[in-house]
Amino acid sequence: MPLPISEGIAGALNIYAREPNAFDEVSRSVATRFAPYAAVAAANMYAYQDARDVADNLQQVLESRAVIDQAKGILMERYKLTADQAFQALARVSMQTNTRVRKVADDLVRTGDFPLG
Questions:
Q1: Which of 52, 70, 96, 114 qualifies as a FRET site for 80, CA 20 to 30 Å off?
Q2: Helix H segments across 6-100?
């Protein structure tokens, strides 16, 4: 039975029997009526997974933002930079070392080392 989940997501309800021709018209009718309920369960599973992915991504962004802000603070205090200048320094080192800004910031926060770019 096809499951009408949502646009871009296809599904099917497969029902098996141990004997050939085990399903009559009544069985097919019951399966047809049950399919939309199964589709709701499948759609909810996809929606839940999408929500979890968004939450995980937001958590990573927040963690990255915190580390970057900490690194900016270190650079601002150490070199008397503005917040924008500190971020530009992180970005410059990131480009020169081909390393993500978050990694450059994390290294600075953990070790105190910052390769001036």
A1: 96
A2: 25-79, 83-97
